[in-house]
């Protein structure tokens, strides 16, 4: 991917991000507080543009680059503002609770999907996408279980649409459920699909929510390795899909199990914990991460076709939505059960 191929798409995302940042600035001057953050504006503008105009091939690579690579860079930079001491301070109970939530989420999702009549492999993709990290989990698990391309496409399509809905709607739980910034960070980390999307869901609330949410989400993402290994062991026991040719299960590499940006985040967090990143550098790095996130949310919006829901069927819609509701409920019960304040 060369600079000339990604430039038009990046410029388009920059334009939407610029308008979004300007809109937030107008809000701040008029209302003294941005009730609709630039992140949210960027997503909505991106979706609006995508609804009336589908970017052609000139823009697609740059949009994809902005939605993935630039967002991953933003996650890495966020590590500079977080000390790994927070992991120890979070306590063993929370760490165990995160693992338990992932396991319960996967089990409940598979059960819901099977009750609704979805194929076993489709059920596994939906479950892992919901419970761990959306597209990344789907991409890692799919070759291991020999999933059909149509099932992979449907799972990823729903992840894209519901991921945006989660980013937009989850902050409503702060007033509706009476959550503190810390509690909301835990909820976001346990329910939002992708690590970068945690930023979009928590930045409008507070820095504490962002830090806690990212920390919880990272622990959740690290569950991907054990989950992929588990499904690789049972893959041969799955019956073939009707009419599908037998497939040989594959084994993903290390970068599929532990994405590079997770390692980068942990590296910067370690450097911050060791005092290798000066305090004066933290604010500029955080601002840069914030702008890259707005830029990437514009790209994310441009990649969402809201009409996709009508094409994949009611059972899949109900299964994915029901699985997500279960995950939110389990997460709220965990927060109350552990008495997180």
Named CATH topology = Na+/H+ antiporter like fold
Whole-number count of domains: 1
Extract low-pLDDT stretches. Answer: none
Distance between the termini: 46 Å
Number of discrete helical segments: 18
Arithmetic mean pLDDT: 81
Order of helices and strands: HHHHHHHHHHHHHHHHHH
Strand content: under 5%
Output the CATH class name.
Mainly Alpha
Based on the coordinates given, report the CATH architecture: Up-down Bundle
| Helix/sheet category | mainly alpha
Largest sheet: none
Q: What percent of the residues sit in helical stretches (DSSP H or I)?
A: over 70%
Rough shape? globular
Subcellular location: Cell membrane
Membrane topology: Multi-pass membrane protein
Transmembrane segments: 35-53, 65-88, 94-116, 123-146, 152-174, 186-206, 218-236, 257-277, 289-309, 316-335
Protein name: Sulfate exporter family transporter
List the main descriptive attributes of the protein structure presented here.
signal, Na+/H+ antiporter like fold, 341 residues, transmembrane, globular, membrane, mainly alpha, Sulfate exporter family transporter, transmembrane helix
């Amino acid at each position: 991917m060369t600079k000339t191929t990604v430039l038009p798409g990046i410029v388009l995302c920059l334009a939407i991000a610029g308008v979004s940042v300007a809109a937030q600035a107008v809000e701040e001057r008029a209302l003294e507080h941005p009730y609709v953050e630039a992140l949210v504006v960027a997503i909505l503008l991106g979706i609006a543009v995508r609804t009336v105009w589908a970017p052609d091939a000139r823009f697609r690579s740059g949009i994809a680059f902005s939605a993935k690579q630039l967002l991953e860079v933003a996650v890495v930079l966020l590590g500079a503002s977080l000390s790994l001491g927070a992991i120890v301070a979070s306590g063993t109970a929370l760490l165990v609770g995160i693992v338990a939530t992932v396991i319960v989420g996967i089990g409940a999702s598979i059960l819901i999907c099977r009750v609704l009549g979805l194929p076993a492999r489709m059920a596994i993709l939906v479950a892992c996408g919901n419970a761990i990290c959306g597209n990344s989990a789907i991409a890692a698990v799919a070759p291991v279980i020999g999933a059909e391309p149509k099932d992979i496409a449907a799972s990823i399509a729903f992840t894209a649409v519901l991921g945006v809905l989660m980013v937009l709607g989850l902050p409503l739980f702060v007033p509706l459920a009476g959550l503190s910034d810390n509690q909301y960070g835990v909820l976001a980390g346990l329910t939002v699909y992708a690590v970068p999307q945690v930023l979009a869901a928590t930045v409008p609330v507070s820095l504490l929510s962002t830090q806690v949410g990212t920390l919880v989400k990272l622990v959740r993402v690290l569950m991907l390795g054990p989950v992929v290994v588990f499904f690789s062991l049972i893959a041969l026991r799955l019956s073939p899909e009707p009419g599908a040719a037998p497939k040989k299960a594959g084994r993903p590499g290390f970068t599929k199990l532990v994405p590079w940006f997770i390692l980068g985040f942990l590296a910067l967090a370690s450097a911050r914990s060791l005092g290798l990143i000066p305090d004066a550098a933290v604010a500029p790095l955080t601002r840069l991460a914030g702008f890259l996130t707005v830029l990437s949310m514009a790209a994310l919006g441009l990649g969402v076709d809201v009409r996709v829901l009508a094409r994949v069927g009611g059972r899949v819609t109900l299964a994915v939505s029901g699985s997500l509701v279960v995950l939110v409920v389990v997460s709220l019960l965990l927060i109350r059960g552990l008495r997180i304040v």
